[in-house]
Each structure stands twice: as structure tokens, then as C-alpha cells.
């Protein structure tokens, strides 16, 4: 395999992958994949090489090569049998002996637009640096400067361990960096970030209200902030994103991610029960579960509680501006437990509880409890959209999913078109 890689390098390919794990094709691993620029200057999977020994006929490599073409759109297909190079015709039906690989038609200096590959290259880079430190006898723990290692480069791109520089489309790089930092920080454990399908639904639920300040007082790794930030960027809305997180490791991680974000981000390492929040136009948050405090929290309805979730909701709602919207991901007890009944009545009287979307076990990361998405507007009370989702909750909450679409239509009805001639 080493010889095949050096021949490809000599032909001008700079980005090579051996037996890559392809995110969308888990059961398919080509022997060597070489990326190169297409006519538009984007880096794409260009050449694939199947490396075999003692294969009776080179043609036996054709099905795997044809599969690469069908699944990845590769342009050049090679088989290397016992060190001899063969090249497939355009239709990948026959192989001809060749001296070696042909140089890529448009060079290899394209811009990477593949988020999965960018993420895995960034994770590889973090492991490369971590192993280097380990080899030097340094313990790689919570203080490992992942954010600094992936800090901004002069041009948007990735420094490969062997010294080459790979330009990456800026929006792809921003998403890949945050995925890589979170993946590296969780190092094989399931991590504490909210479920991506929940983060994406939360962002959709606040999309129409995005402006000014977006706050997550219990931001963890920041997944709600990042999903919302992406929505704002897609809509061309300028907003600032503010997070609070009490766990220093998670706060540093979120701050490291926020550093490369395309909008202003501030992450405060602070106790959200004591911090002074900025007035917020939008709040997106999943408060910690099962927190009971020794102090009783005074609630807006005049009562007191030691229940952390109710206290968190109450505290957070104080920061919500008139006309603003908050979306909470809470344990379902918030909407069902008898002990919270009077607080729920208070909320329904003083706010617009716009939607309650019940989710089954598995949606609230790291717990086995059922949960609920609660959408609250600081506005006049009105009807509430209510849904209880089942096992297909992820599909239901996809951007075009039935439950999410129905909820959005209810909470932000499309303006009725004006009839010409009528006021
Ligand atoms: C359910 S998790 C939020 C996960 C987050 N949405 C994410 O995707 O990473 C709750 C977070 O609140 C943090 N937290 C707990 N108590 C806190 C406090 N008093 N102030 C600020 N953050 C706190 C926890 O460390 C945890 O990261």
C-alpha cells in the first residue's frame, strides 16, 4: 500500500486515504482513495485503487472499482496486482496495463467541500498532536489545547500532519471544526451533547424570531447555539450568541468552537443560577436534570422551589424580551408532575405557551427519561400546539418532518396572502 501511495503522490495527488471509513457508506471501504480538483475547483473523490495480490485476473477487481464510481462518482479507476498497475476504461468494463497513475486532470489544489472528510482530517490532526505529546511523556488530559491546535489559519483550511495545506470552504470548515472538537473531547464515550435531531428542531422552532441576542444559559458543548447560528447564517440574520456553562472543560470546548464561528459568540464559565444574563430575543436551552438545590428559589408566581428544572425555566424566562421566544428541552415531568401544576397554570396565564412536543426515551442524551420541547413566547396567552411523538420522533422532527412542519405552521402561521383590491 505504501508504494501505491508514493506513486499517487508522485503523479501529483496530495490527499490520499487508505481504506477510508465513508460516513454515508459504512459497508464500503476502497483500498486507496485519491482526492483531486474537479473543473469547478472543488476537491472530489477522483481516483480509486484496488490493491490485490495473487489475483488470477485483474478483471476480478472491476466490480469493486465500478462500485466506487457508482457510489462516489470517482473518475479514474486502477487495480494494482502484485505491484503491476492496470487502468479501467471509462465504463469500468475492462483493464489495460499502464506504467502508473495519470496525473489528476485539474490538479490536486481544489477546495474541500466534504464535511465528513474535513471532520475526520481535523480529528486525525488532534490525535497526531495528542500522540506526539504522549510520546514526549506529557499527560493528555482536560487541558489539551484542541481549540488552539485547530485555531484559525491564514486562509480557511486544514494543515495536514505531513505539512501540506488543504483549503476548505469556510462554512464546511466551521461545521467540521465543531464536530471534530466535540468528537475528540468525547474520545469514544457517548458525550453529553444534546441529540443533533433535537438541536436542529430547537433551531427550527426559533428560526422566525432570530435577531439580536440568542442565549443558552446551560450551553454544554453549545449544540443548540451552533444549530441556531447556522439557521441565522442561512437566513442572513445577524445575531450574537451567548452561552453559560458551569463545567470548565465544556465551557472551554464551547469557547474553542465559538472562536471560529461566523457570528459573534461569548461563552461564560459561570453558574447560570447566579449570572446576570443579557436581555435575550431568543433562548434555547436544555437545563440539567435532577438538580435540587439547598436554597429555595423564589419563582415569578410568588412561590418557591428546590427543583432545579423549574428554577432554571423561571430564571431564564426573566431574561426573555417582550416578543421573544424561548425553547426548552425538559424532562417530561415538567408538563406532567402534579407538583408543578400551579407553576404551569401561572405560565399559561402570563406567557404564550406556544407548543409542547413530547419525545420518547432516548431523545434526552445520557438519560432514560421521556422529555418534552416547550416553546414559550413572551406574548399574550393563546392556544398551545400539543403533540406526543413516538419511536419515529427523529423523522418527525426533520426539517420537512410532519410534526415539526405542523408545529411551525401553528406557532408562526404563514401570513394570509392579501386579496387584491381589499385593504
Ligand atoms: C442537558 S446539558 C446541555 C447540553 C447542551 N445542550 C449540549 O448540547 O451540549 C446541561 C448542561 O448544563 C450545565 N450546567 C449544570 N448546572 C449548571 C449551572 N448551574 N450553570 C451553568 N451550567 C450548568 C451542565 O454542565 C450541562 O453541560
From TrEMBL:
Segments traversing the membrane: none
Q: Which GO terms describe its molecular function?
A: DNA binding; N-methyltransferase activity
GO terms, biological process: methylation
Coiled coil ranges (UniProt) are none
Q: Does the keyword Transferase apply?
A: yes
- Domain DNA methylase adenine-specific spans what residues? 197-381
Q: Which domain of life is it from?
A: Bacteria
Please provide the record's keywords in A-Z order.
Methyltransferase, Transferase
Tell me which PANTHER family the record gives: TYPE I RESTRICTION ENZYME HINDI METHYLASE SUBUNIT (PTHR42998:SF1), TYPE I RESTRICTION ENZYME HINDVIIP M PROTEIN-RELATED (PTHR42998)
UniProt protein name: Class I SAM-dependent methyltransferase
Q: Which organism is it from?
A: Streptomyces muensis
Q: What is the lineage of its organism?
A: Bacteria, Bacillati, Actinomycetota, Actinomycetes, Kitasatosporales
